[in-house]
Amino acid sequence: MADKHVVRFEPVGIEIEVDEDQTILRAAAEQGIMLMHGCKEGQCSSCKSFVLDGDDIDLDKYSTFALPDYEKEEGFTLLCRAHAYEDLTIELLNYDEEMIRSGLPIQEAAAEVVSNEPVTHDMRHLVLRLVEPTEIKFFPGQYVDIKVPGTDETRSFSMANTSSRDGGLLEFVIKVYPDGLFSHLLDNQLKVGDRLELTGPFGVFTLREGLETDLIFVGGGAGMAPILALLRSMAERGLQRKATFFYGARGSADLCFEKELRGLEEKLPGFKYVPALSEPADGDGWEGETGLITDVVKRLAGGLKGAHAYVCGPPPMVEAAMPVLATAGVEEKRIYYDKFTTTADPQQ
Ligand SMILES: Cc1cc2nc3c(=O)[nH]c(=O)nc-3n(C[C@H](O)[C@H](O)[C@H](O)COP(=O)(O)OP(=O)(O)OC[C@H]3O[C@@H](n4cnc5c(N)ncnc54)[C@H](O)[C@@H]3O)c2cc1C
Ligand code: FES
Prior knowledge:
Elements: E1 4-10, E2 14-19, H1 24-30, E3 48-53, E4 57-59, H2 69-74, E5 76-78, E6 82-84, E7 88-92, H3 97-100, E8 107-120, E9 123-132, E10 143-147, E11 154-158, E12 169-175, H4 181-188, E13 195-202, E14 215-220, H5 224-237, E15 243-249, H6 258-267, E16 271-277, E17 289-290, H7 293-300, E18 308-313, H8 315-327, E19 335-339
Parallel strand pairs: 1-7, 14-15, 14-18, 15-16, 16-17, 18-19
Antiparallel strand pairs: 1-2, 3-5, 3-7, 4-6, 8-9, 8-13, 9-12, 10-11, 10-13
Helix pairs in contact: 7-8
The chain binds flavin-adenine dinucleotide and FE2/S2 (inorganic) cluster.
């Protein structure tokens, strides 16, 4: 078995033990410490931190886009790629005090396909039932890593449901890429009863509780999944916070869960659903909002001082939404996001 070392995180004063053969981020997740992260593959820089003490660290393959050489030399590291070979003290640059200690330890599980149906022409609604263990607790908005059958690769997918409502079930909304390793298989092969292995829960795209602040959700494509989970959770608990969900799609054929979202407007008095089409077709008969979702937010959201924002979808949409929300008054640290990075996103 590999040696273990102690890694201390500042300024929060949390210590964990890390095996040499696991990354620091992974060890923290296994011990229920929810550190900021995104891709877990050294591409997005969300987990970038500063090494205050110790230097015997090895990094798995990463993108110099996420950690340029000069930053590495200054002492920065990527926790999702870093292996500790001595005791270390790490300064977290990007952390959320409310979330860090509220993590649920990750588990490995086997699950069975309950259904796998299209929800649009290029998105599928996959429902799994956990077999071993039969339940995993997760916070609405979190995700799991699913192993691509027959490979050593994993892909991350956000749950669209809540664990309180559907104990043992995991529901996903997954975009199909024509050559996508997992999504192609999902579209063509995966059938009811098939088994999948997964690990989780991961992620910090979860509702900060105990507050009355307004909420703004901005989603595109499969970014629907974790936002739907957050909204479903609010409905289950009768939360009355004022909330608006701006959802961007190309044409009306790309919209999904419309009926449920309209139903949520009835259940949640402060909630409004605003879908917008960027390329409505002539035959769409669309009378709703049009344009890029970020432009629609700019036009309609008004002053957002004090609000909390949740943004999820393809990386360019998330990046375009951040300055729009900041300009409208959302504090930068109150913009929570999950970028659905894929293997096609920039690597160097
Ligand atoms: C935190 C997180 C949560 C996520 N949640 C969801 C979710 O809920 N739903 C969802 O649909 N997705 C989600 N994703 C994205 C998901 O994990 C996968 O990346 C995505 O589904 C693509 O996987 P794939 O195996 O189907 O395609 P991949 O095989 O990864 O390929 C994706 C696309 O990129 C192209 N491609 C691959 N490699 C290259 C290359 N080198 N150069 C150019 N093009 C290339 C492929 O042809 C294909 O079109 C999430 C990602 C993250 C990080
Ligand atoms: S989570 Fe470490 S670089 Fe993306």
